[in-house]
Design brief:
heterodimer, A: mainly alpha, Cytochrome C Oxidase, Chain A, two-stranded antiparallel sheet, 18 helices, 3 strands, globular, B: alpha+beta, Immunoglobulin-like, 5-stranded mixed sheet, 2 helices, about 25% helix, about 40% strand
Chain lengths: ~575, ~170
């Protein structure tokens, strides 16, 4: 009885003490984090191989996949494996990490976690098999009235239900940790950001069910009609917020990486938390971005939604875009890098993959992804961008150059801390974020330039010469150049992807289990998080610690934003008159 | 990464305050650009939409073609309507019919699809709209340049998607 009651607070959970971070790690949680992270990487591998085939097909001079059917089939899988499977599996791993390890708390219901994992794994595997089997070449979006096999919709639903259970488990873990007094006061900012992602995910996944359950019934002939416009509205109520879940999770990871690599502390917790709250309230309105040139919606409906009610979600991002580099700058300045505006940046740990990964991810996400996203989501400008290559250009900058790169950078720290394996090929890891970022930079920029020339997305033959076309059209010859650069960018990015795979797989599957001995991988044996504990508010408020360099970078960013935004109004003003 | 101190709601620093103010002003500019363009701009997204069915829209288009056909290209009728209502549909995998329009003349282009979703993308002016079955989307359009323009489908519509094109000819 006595033993039972002493065990009661942790319900029999077994913990280990992490020697580096001093976190108490629940072993059951650790296993779940590992399983979800491994599943994520497998999906990334699959999606990455397909990415190469697709890019080399759209690079007109190569035209790798000679069967249009297989091109569209693989494009369908690429979207699902990357945009859904890789990212959601990794986010579940992140949610478990945030709700247990970072709070020194236990995984409340490991069995439920495994059940969620099984549902997601079965859903993910099934959708791959169903698509490869043929009859479901409908793209990730599966726009009704284009019909897929019933199993296609069923696998989406299974995956979404699994993810929803995992998200609910996150909330249970956090509230149990609070009840059991594992932490006091407010959640750490990173967990707060993950909680934002989790709340957005609940809405997203429920909306997914509302879109896909009728689609399943319709594909089984139980429902006769499914209105295409209503499906699009419901689908994007799932598809767009799903990317906002990524956004919130990625921003949380940026804060984490800044803390790990330079000991950055939020300059103002209040401001950073407000920025997450802006996401929570406004960002899902962005679903309407996809409906701007659809019939039937009014100007007011579209502008109120596409502007996230006065761009308040954009304001959230603009705040993070300032406050994260500012936190890095202040931390660096306190270390003594106070000369000029950018001494702190020059002396940043550029060889540390967590730092370079975070920095490059922020740069690509903000300067390319964010700027183009707000621009193409402007109601009238959408007429000259909708469904052109500018769209994949935008979201490859956000989801790949941004989110995926941030997730990759975090993985390098999870390997010693959670997998408890030594990171192999450290030099390669130091280089990898640069290679991947360069590749994705080139890919997304080239896609955007192709799109400005009118090139359609999801298209096997923009030369209109490989198959018989009654009324062929020729795009300007310059598209061949931008498509070539897109292909080269993809080759470089895939090289970065292979480096990542090599490092992760070699580290995880070879070598003995070892307790981590240090936090930083390459640039030192010190522990920036522990060091940051002794930094006082007073030190952070000193005049020489103020983030002046960040302020200048932020202003430069805004200038670039304005330039791109207004040049698009100019492009719009030069087309035919439309009303 | 770590839990904040008990009291973390501190006042913003000067640079932070300035940045939030600048960012907020930019958000307001982004917001008012849309209503401003709505009032003063010449390119606004059409909203007029009627309910229809594929059968009804096919009949409307056929009647329109019968009335105004002037020519034929590769078996597809070329239609030269006066200013006013124009009908065009997308179906796997063509845009029907070919339109011959006058420059600087306003047309009400009724756009719909007979089967799946299609993307109505006029090139190289790069104007893009969605064509949906059951929805008659009225695009009030004034061509301001002369020449031959292609309509490319930019919404995936299964195997032959990349062969789906159409044509708009704009004359003086």
């Amino acid at each position: 009885m006595t033993t039972a009651s002493t065990n009661l607070p942790d319900q029999g959970a077994e913990f280990r003490d992490c020697p580096v971070t001093a976190f108490k790690v629940d072993l059951a949680s650790e296993k779940l984090i590992i399983a979800n992270a491994v599943a994520a990487v497998v999906c990334l591998l699959l999606g990455g191989i397909i990415a190469l085939l697709i890019a080399l097909t759209r690079w007109e001079a190569i035209g790798l996949i000679s069967s249009p059917m297989w091109f569209y089939r693989l494009l369908t899988l690429h979207g699902i494996d990357m945009l859904v499977a890789w990212i959601v599996f990794f986010e579940v791993a992140g949610l478990y990490f945030g709700s247990t390890v970072m709070l020194n708390a236990r995984m409340v219901a490991p069995k439920v976690g495994w059940f969620a994992f099984a549902l997601m794994a079965v859903g993910g595997l099934m959708v791959n098999l169903v698509v490869l089997d043929g009859g479901s070449d409908v793209m990730f979006t599966a726009y009704v009235p284009m019909q897929a096999e019933p199993l296609f919709y069923l696998s989406y639903i299974l995956f979404a239900v699994g993810a929803l259970i995992a998200v609910i488990l996150f909330f249970i873990n956090v509230s149990t940790a609070k009840k059991e007094k594992k932490y006091e006061g407010s959640l750490p900012l990173v967990v707060f950001g993950l909680a934002t992602a989790a709340i957005l995910a609940v809405y997203t996944l429920l909306d997914g069910a509302v879109a896909f359950v009728p689609a399943l019934l319709w594909s089984m002939d139980i429902i006769k009609d499914y209105d295409p416009a209503i499906y699009r509205n419901l689908f994007w109520g799932f598809g767009h917020p799903a990317q906002q879940v990524n956004l919130a999770a990625m921003v949380a990871i940026w804060y984490a990486l800044a803390a790990i690599t330079v000991g950055a502390k939020p300059v103002n917790e209040k401001l950073s938390r407000w920025a997450f709250v802006f996401y929570l309230f406004f960002i899902n309105l962005g679903s309407a971005h996809h409906l701007l040139v659809d019939p039937a919606y009014s100007f007011l409906y579209k502008t109120a939604n596409t502007s996230y009610a006065m761009y308040l979600a954009v304001l959230g991002s603009l705040i993070h875009a300032f406050s994260i580099p500012a936190a890095v700058e202040v931390a660096q300045r306190i270390k003594g890098f106070t000369r000029g505006a950018f001494d702190w940046l020059r002396n940043a740990p550029w060889k540390e993959p967590g730092f370079s990964g975070m920095f490059l991810s922020m740069a690509i996400f903000g300067w390319i992804g964010g700027v183009t996203g707000v621009t193409i989501g402007t109601e009238q400008i959408n007429m000259v961008t909708h469904n052109t290559m500018r769209l994949p250009g935008h979201f490859h900058a956000t989801v790949v150059g941004g989110t995926t790169l941030a997730f990759m950078a975090l993985t390098y720290y999870l390997i010693p801390l959670i997998f408890r394996k030594e990171l192999k090929f450290k030099k390669l890891a130091s280089l990898q974020p640069y290679v991947f970022a360069a590749g994705m930079f080139l890919t997304s920029i080239s896609m955007i330039i192709s799109g400005i020339q009118g090139l359609p997305r999801r298209h096997w033959d923009i030369s209109f010469s490989k198959a018989y076309v009654v009324l062929p059209h020729s795009f300007p010859g310059t598209v061949n150049i931008s498509l070539m650069f897109m292909g080269i960018g993809a080759l470089i990015a895939v090289t970065g992807g292979i480096m990542y795979m090599l490092i992760v797989l070699a580290s995880v599957f070879t070598g003995p289990r070892v307790e981590a001995s240090q936090l930083l991988l390459i640039t030192g044996s010190n522990n920036p998080i522990v060091e940051s504990l002794s930094v006082t508010e007073k030190e952070m408020e000193q005049p020489q610690a103020q983030p002046k360099g960040t302020f200048m970078i932020a202003l430069a960013f805004l200038m670039f934003f304005m330039l791109y935004y207004f040049s698009n109004w100019w492009i719009l003003g030069n087309t035919w008159n439309i009303r | 990464m770590l839990a904040p101190p008990k009291i973390w709601w501190r006042k913003l620093g000067k640079l932070e305050r300035n940045w939030v103010a600048i960012a907020f002003v930019w958000c307001v500019i982004l917001t008012i650009m849309m209503p401003l363009w709505f009032i003063y701009g010449k390119q606004n997204v059409p909203v007029t939409t009627y309910k229809t069915t594929p059968d009804e829209f096919l009949a409307l288009t056929n009647a329109f073609v019968a009335e105004y056909q002037v020519d034929e290209i590769a078996g597809i009728p070329v239609v030269a309507p006066p200013a006013g209502d124009v009908y065009i549909y997308g179906r796997r995998w063509q845009w029907y019919p070919v339109l011959k329009l006058k420059v600087n003349t306003e047309y009400r282009v009724h756009l719909s699809s007979l089967d799946l979703l299609h993307g109505f993308s006029i090139q190289p002016v790069n104007l893009n709209f969605m064509a949906m079955p059951n929805y008659d989307y009225v695009i009030t359009l004034t061509p301001t340049t002369v020449g031959e323009f292609a309509i490319v489908c930019n919404e995936y519509c299964m195997t032959g998607h990349h062969t789906m094109t159409g044509k708009i000819i704009v004359e003086e």
